[in-house]
Amino acid sequence: MSGPNKQYDPVEVAALEPAAIEGYVADALAAIGAAGDLDALKTARQAHAGDKSPLALANREIGALPPSAKADAGKRVGQARGRVAEALKARQAELEADRDERILIEEAIDVTVPSPYRRLGARHPINLVTERIQDIFVGMGWEIADGPELEAEWFNFDALNFAPDHPARQMQDTFFVDPPDSGLVLRTHTSPVQARTMLRLDTSRLERDLPIYVAVPGRVYRTDELDATHTPVFHQVEGLAVDKHLTMAHLKGTLDHLAAAMFGAGISTRLRPSFFPFTEPSAEMDFQCWVCRDDDPAGAAAAPCRTCGGTGWIEWGGCGMVNRNVLAAAGIDPDVYTGFAFGMGIDRTIQLRNGVTDMHDIVEGDARFSAQFGMEI
Asked: What pTM did the predictor assign?
């Protein structure tokens, strides 16, 4: 019996013959050269350099060769695979360069062309409503006044006839500035500008003399918790008129004009008796609900008007004739001059005019909230 053949393996040698290896390489180079984009090159890579490619399968057969033949076959297959890998690398670099150049051309952006997708800005509705109110009063011949938000306690309370033990002076209603005896507060209303105006101390530096007709929009502070209808920082507009022979009729006419300008023509108003230290007589000003127009506001028992709660009227602010003590404190003779004053919340006006149900929307600064109002309100 003859021994095993250690020189020649008749089964495995066919896949490792030089001609076969060259054929595999030629097919691979042809496929690589024909790849027109990176996706096609990926397909060629899998077919000719992947785990199931002819060269990979041939490389597996080297282990079955006799020891004397392994080195030569391994060198031949390794060089073939190296040529294919170099061809793949070179072709990939070419295709990536072509892709990048094409992207630069096809996706070029002319940054000098105005963008059609530019979003328009929007101003906050507080500013818009404030300016609208100012325009209304300027149109009536009034002036616009302002004053400091950090105010002397005397202007905020004493000059406006608040008694020393008035509840509004307590810490639970007013922000006092440290130290406690500093005499400074964050103003709780815009009414201190009344006293400053009558004393010619308003910060607009206008040399006013009697008569006085001023509107005072501004930011005020109270120790309220932030909820759907309250906020510790809000906005008011104060009105003050001091002249000879002014009466409640002049006050109501002014408020009627303001209500019509803000909420539409035909809005009826009413004055309900009330009390404020700085006005006497005093009243709360209501205007007719513009949704139901007092036309059966309660409606069906299950569905009263949501705007006015079925009452037919909406409270807007306080008003009255300037108290004689306030005029006297400012050096104005109350026997010669009379005056009227009123104050409305600008934030509340926005809620009423535009159906804003949550004060959080007004104060949180979300640009989407302001954008719905555009540039005019």
From this structure: 0.61
